[in-house]
Amino acid sequence: MRALIALSLICCCTSLGQTFDVASVKVSRVQAGKDAEGPIIFGAAGLSGKNVTLKNLIAAAYQAQPHQVIGGPNWLDSSEYDIDAKAARPATKDQLRLMLRALLADRFHLSLHSETRELQTYELVTAKRGPRVNVAKDGVSMTELANLISIQLTIPDAGDDPAKPSIAKGPPPHVVDKTGLPGTYDIRADLKPQPGTDMFTLWQRFLQDRLGLQLESKKERMEVLVVDGAERTPTSN
């Protein structure tokens, strides 16, 4: 049944003519690492990216967050690729996503299916005494702060690897803004791993003491994409 789901997605894309006219997918010559992964850029008639992982390509193709892509081989979020794909004519983002799905199935022999699972998530909320943040025209939105915290929570404890304390590990947890605070704010945070203290504790202290915010742990049921299989080396262009 799972194979049929993956196959139906591919057939849907190709039967509607949703394939790229020209596409190049190659293993990146230099692996940048998780702290320097490149973005996937959608244009008027194509998309491109350097040093992008297959997990992020899947997330882009299906409009999912990386934490919603689970399973699959252990290299899914570490091996990096360069991609450059062009459509025959201008296309919408949704059309480009369909083309990307077909491309991933073709080049990586990707197969996946969707499920609903209960996942750990964190909500960024205001503390009991209320927020203490200053509005700034070119500041940071609460959504951007939540995204930053999500990435920061992947930084290992200082005692894990003293030689590389800043290298992220594992997929970012889901952190969602529930503060209800619009606009942008002057927020400056330079939190670094400390011996004996994990990043969650450091952020929780900073949020409560400096901003009047806090993180609340929740269990949330959400749709995820489960990767059944993929090949590490993409087929030739």
Residue share in helix: 25-40%
Average the pLDDT over all residues and give the rounded result.
84
* Shape assignment: elongated
Task: Report the biggest beta sheet as strand number plus sense, adding barrel if it closes.
Answer: 4 strands, antiparallel
Uncertain stretches: 1-16
Please describe the topology of this protein.
Layout: H1 2-15, E1 22-27, E2 40-42, E3 46-53, H2 54-61, E4 69-71, E5 80-86, H3 93-108, E6 111-126, E7 135-141, H4 142-152, E8 174-177, E9 184-185, H5 199-211, E10 213-229
Parallel strand pairs: 4-10, 6-8
Antiparallel strand pairs: 1-5, 2-3, 3-5, 6-10, 7-9
Report on the architecture of this protein.
It is a single chain. By secondary structure, the protein is of the alpha+beta class. It has two domains: 2-116 and 223-229, no CATH class; 118-222, no CATH class. The protein contains five helices and ten strands. It has helices at residues 2-15, 54-61, 93-108, 142-152, 199-211, and strands at 22-27, 40-42, 46-53, 69-71, 80-86, 111-126, 135-141, 174-177, 184-185, 213-229. It has a four-stranded antiparallel β-sheet with strand order 1-5-3-2. It has a four-stranded mixed β-sheet with strand order 4-10-6-8. A two-stranded antiparallel ribbon has the order 7-9. Strand 2 and strand 3 (46-53) form a beta hairpin. It starts with a helix and ends in an 8-residue tail after the last strand.
